[in-house]
Specification:
Length: 390
């Protein structure tokens, strides 16, 4: 496992000041002109930002709720928390009370701030455990809190799950939280969430399960850590991916009443509030599954189409167990993910993310988000076919 060390703030001028690392996706700037130089321009599959429309009823509710006048409840309106609880029941067959549900200003904000708040709750602990190939914000949450970040290797060669037995006992004793992401960004792998919950309970470590890609589970049914009970665990869900609402910043978390209650209360003190019109619109989104079914079909078609196009061009890529990312291994003709990303930009106008943006162990891959419409992906396929790659 990789330990990033600890960063602490200090007024002692003899010590180095806190310095943020570069924002991961800012490093792609040099590749954009290469991709955009081709006729038809760049096809940006580097970031998982939705391009498809959210439901019209949700958009209409944003402008008609009347909720913009007063301060919205930080924990979320009762009707929104009820809608979230009902959605969890329909999707995962779990029963959870509204007092164990709270909203967040998009789940990235919750991920990034969780460690600093949990450290207030348990100041004797200073470690964030997270998947070794993962969304960068888990590690960033430790950095922002002045904590250690310790990565946990996958349980299998395809990047799925977590090898919980690899966690050092000392790291477990110091852990504020274990993050699980299933289906995972970037690999699409799925985790044994019941095993993660059991490990957390056995070691007294809260387990936070980022489940924002659960609606796009391709092997088996969607799963939640709450199916193993809510003691010591928190499930985190987002409307960004499910409902194409990344621009309104709406998410929620649910689980252990002590963890949810503590985070709910400290977030209220911090003034973190999902805007009232967004809360009203989120109720509409959570109450409708037809638009999610349609989006699921779009992503499945795009995954299969682009995987086939890449395979025909000499870059075979398996379909993921979940999510809407392809995670191909870098063929031998390129040294690493950056070399492959540069060539894809130059030849196909396709902008992708080199795998080391998700940790050093991802260096042998690139991540491709199939968020562009089929017409744009068809342009990529045409360019690849004309390139003579094999």
């Amino acid at each position: 496992m990789r330990d990033s060390g600890e960063v602490t703030a200090s007024t002692d001028t003899s010590r180095r000041a806190f310095a943020l690392p570069p924002y991961p996706y800012a490093r792609l700037g040099a590749l954009r002109p290469l991709a955009d130089a081709l006729p038809g321009g760049m096809v940006d599959c580097s970031i998982g930002t939705p391009c498809d429309p959210p439901p019209a009823a949700v958009v209409a509710r944003l402008g008609s709720s009347g909720a913009e006048r007063g301060y919205p409840p930080s924990a979320g309106t009762v009707v929104l928390r009820e809608a979230a609880a009902e959605w969890l029941s329909r999707t995962f067959s779990v029963s959870i009370g509204v007092d164990k549900v709270a909203v967040c200003v998009g789940t990235k904000e919750l991920v990034a701030s969780s460690a600093q708040y949990l450290r207030l709750r348990e100041p004797g602990r200073d470690t964030v455990l997270y998947p070794s190939v993962a969304y960068p914000t888990y590690e960033m949450s430790a950095l922002l809190a002045g904590c250690r970040s310790v990565s946990v290797p996958p349980a299998s060669e395809d990047g799925s799950g977590l090898d919980l037995d690899a966690i050092d006992p000392d790291d477990a004793r110091r852990a504020l939280v274990l993050w699980v992401n299933s289906p995972a960004n970037p690999s699409g792998g799925v985790s044994d969430l019941e095993a993660a919950a059991a490990w957390g309970r056995a070691h007294g470590v809260p387990v936070f399960s980022d489940e924002c890609y659960a609606p796009f589970t391709w092997r088996g049914r969607p799963r939640s850590i709450l199916e193993a009970g809510d003691e010591g665990v928190v499930a985190v869900h987002s409307l960004s991916k499910r409902s194409n609402l990344a621009g309104v910043r709406a998410g929620f978390f649910a689980g252990d009443e002590h963890l949810v209650g503590f985070l709910r209360d400290v977030r209220q003190h911090a003034g973190l509030m999902v805007p009232g019109p967004v809360q009203a619109a989120a109720v509409v989104a959570l109450g409708d599954e037809a638009h999610v079914d349609a989006q699921r079909a779009r992503y499945r078609e795009r995954l299969e189409y682009l995987a086939s196009a890449l395979g025909s061009a000499g870059c075979p890529v398996p379909l993921p167990p979940g999510g809407f990312y392809l995670w191909p291994s870098v063929p031998e003709r390129w040294s690493d993910g950056w070399a492959m990303a540069e060539e894809l930009a130059r030849v196909a106008g396709l902008l992708v993310s080199p795998g080391d943006l998700y940790g050093p162990e991802g260096a042998g891959h690139v991540r491709i988000a199939v968020v562009q419409p089929m017409a744009r992906l068809a342009l990529v396929a045409e360019r690849l076919a004309a390139s003579g790659w094999h």
